[in-house]
Amino acid sequence: MADDRPWLAAYPEGVPADITVPEKPLTANLDAAVARFPDRVALDFLGAATTYRQLGDQVARAAGALHELGVRAGDRVALVLPNCPQHVVAFYAVLRLGAIVVEHNPLYTKDELAHQLADHGARVAIVWQKVASLVDATRDRTGVETIVAVDLPAALPLVKRLALRLPVPAARKTRADMTGPAPASALDWEKLIARAAPVADGVPGPSVDDTAMLQYTGGTTGTPKGAILSHRNLAANAEQNRFWPPGLRDGGETFYAVLPMFHVYGVTLCLTTAITIGATLVLLPRFDPGMVLDAAKRRPPTFFPGVPPMYDRLGAEMRKRGVDLSSARYAISGAMALPPDTVDRWEKLTGGLLIEGYGMTETSPITIGNPMSKNRRAGSIGVPFPSTRVRLTDPEDPSVEVPRGEPGELLIQGPQVFSGYWNLPEETARVLLPGGWIRTGDVAVMSEDGYLTIVDRIKELIITGGFNVYPSEVEEVLRGHADVADAAVVGMPGKDGGEQVVAVVVPVEGTQPDPETLRAWTRERLAGYKAPRRIVIVPELPRSMIGKVLRRQVRENLLADGS
């Protein structure tokens, strides 16, 4: 039977149409890397190096310590950590016991943390010392019994730890940014690991079909839901990722962890894919262009995952310093549209490839990407990954496929697709269809040769005067104006009970664009019903933890302001 995947012709040589779906849990990938590359540097944290042999030992000891604390298979363990070596160790130690990792953003408020902690019911939380008191304050609403506090400076090189003790303002500020007082009841991570014995061989580990993670997502509504990701889901996505860039070398790559590892994008590229291929993982506690370039002097990157604003800021810093990142052969961008200008600037500065990909928490997350070759196509999210199939359907009836070239809801099937939401069977039934297909909530168009372009999100579609308006189309036109740095377009209540198109615009520094002039600009380039009825000028747009504009928050802000 002929293959129904026209996009396979775009695959570079060496990228398979299908992968062999792993039959081993994620922990087996770490064990294999330790065995194959024991003396290779696994982690670099601001100059402090950890080899794979040392990482394997630390994970075994951490698993032994957690087992002594009563953690067992199926238990949820909360991680509230920035990027640091302790994060990697804790992640794999929890998995080694067959327990379930639940990642949390350490910048969340007490209420945001309390909601998630109560939902999954973790009894043990491994927490950045700076926010340990915040987690401690949730105990009256959650099941947290034990808090293990992680001191970030403990992972620094000795000279940097000593420098933090200097009685100078810069050292005090850095120390305050990295650490803070932990509650008296909290256990100390470093002391706990130092006195622990490695987990006993007789303690059973996970199977490939066990749940590895609960990753919280807002999905198409604002209510956080825990996506259930199995070892098989995450291991399959790591396998897909390792084949996508042609010539990726086991034991020969250096990945930069500038994406937060509490986000599923950072999990799959830094915590799973990098470890699976025995790469060196350069960990940065936060994204800072100067910090990246300083690290590059020590360990030049070969693979750089990020989001568009990171590439823009890093490019500006490279030009300022007169340096490049010519070692970075591959870079993949996600979470938001990748502007062609960003690609051009990055590729001129590095000589490597920067491509756009697509994913969602519920798919581990990556499902679609531009080929890592001259076949990449600007403005498109690319083609489905190996062992991944897609359909475009009527948003009102997912059983009806739309003709090629017409917009439809994107449905995805593959080994990386999750099994459902934690304790939310009705929500699961809304998005998971028979045959393992997931409704993404995104509207896309497919070209004849299989390339996909996202038009917009179904939930953010604006209906005005009976016509559909896709916000991204209007935003793209606005960004084309010389005085507009960024824009977000939302639907606001109209006098007739329908919606009206409203744009919120961030001006280029030093400019003062006139809203009426901008409206005229859009009317010249868009059908009348698509042009914004109002334009509001703001200094900045609300963004997610990885820089994605939050249209829902934009709309709420406008409503709160009475705009």
What report would you give on this structure?
It is a single chain. With about 575 residues, the chain is of the alpha/beta class. It has a domain at about 460-560: GMP Synthetase, Chain A, domain 3, CATH 3.30.300. Helices cover about 30% and strands about 25% of the residues. Helix 3 (about 85-95) links the parallel strand 3 (about 75-80) and strand 4 (about 100-105). The longest helix has 17 residues, at about 50-70.
End-to-end gap? 57 Å
Largest sheet: 7 strands, mixed
- CATH-defined superfamily of the domain at 461-561: ANL, C-terminal domain
Strand content: 15-25%
Compute the number of strand runs.
Answer: 27
Coarse morphology = globular
Mind telling me which CATH architecture of the domain at 461-561 this is? Answer: 2-Layer Sandwich
Return the CATH class of the domain at 461-561: Alpha Beta
| Class from helix and strand fractions | alpha/beta
Give the strand order, joined by hyphens, for the main sheet: 7-6-5-3-4-8-9
Stretches where pLDDT is under 50 for at least 5 consecutive residues are: none
Q: Output mean pLDDT.
A: 93
* Alpha-carbon Rg, integer: 24 Å
Compute the number of helices.
17
Helix content: 25-40%
CATH topology grouping of the domain at 461-561: GMP Synthetase, Chain A, domain 3
EC number: 6.2.1.3
GO molecular function, one term: long-chain fatty acid-CoA ligase activity
Keywords: Ligase, Membrane, Transmembrane, Transmembrane helix
Transmembrane segments: 262-284
